[in-house]
Amino acid sequence: ACAIEDGFLATNVKVTLKLGQVRGVAMLVAERAALEVHEYSPRLVKQTVVGHGNAEKFQVQQMVKTLLSLKNVPEPHDAADALAVAICHFHHACFAQRILAAQAGTKLTSANLTRRRASR
């Protein structure tokens, strides 16, 4: 799977356009690799990682460090953002799989998760 942050609006128009191009390339590469693309809003990523959607960047960085048991905040600082999106995806994808398993009447185990990932 490929997890990316929803559209980002920067104060600089050129930066916004460049980020849009990068997102487009990332989505194209994922599609060509037959990966599912999951998009998460910055607010949801912050809510998932920190506990509130209005978290500051340094709060996200500190929680990523804590959640992943890292010695230091990831460098460059954008790496913490990418890891936060990955943490958000892991949290929401696992939750979605549990819901699907419950609807199907099966118990979700780590063996089931491994089989599902291998079959994709």
Describe this entry's structure for a reader.
This protein starts with a strand and ends with a helix. Helix 1 links the parallel strand 1 and strand 2. It is built from five helices and two strands. It is mostly helical and 120 residues long. It has a single domain, classed as Ribonuclease H-like superfamily/Ribonuclease H (Nucleotidyltransferase, domain 5), CATH 3.30.420. Helices cover 64% and strands 7% of the residues. The model has no long low-confidence stretch (mean pLDDT 85).
Quickly list its features.
120 residues; two-stranded parallel ribbon; Nucleotidyltransferase, domain 5; 2 strands; mainly alpha; 5 helices
Low-confidence regions: none
Q: DSSP helix count?
A: 5
Helix content: 55-70%
Number of domains: 1
Order of helices and strands: EHEHHHH
Mean of residue pLDDT? 85
How many beta strands in the DSSP annotation? 2
- Level-2 CATH architecture: 2-Layer Sandwich
- Percent of sequence in beta strands: 5-15%
Biggest sheet character: 2 strands, parallel
| Radius of gyration, CA atoms, in whole angstroms | 16 Å
* CATH homologous superfamily grouping: Ribonuclease H-like superfamily/Ribonuclease H
Q: Reading side by side through the largest sheet, how are the strands ordered?
A: 1-2
CATH class label = Alpha Beta
Distance between the termini: 9 Å
Q: Describe the oligomeric state of these chains in a short phrase.
A: single chain
Shape field: globular
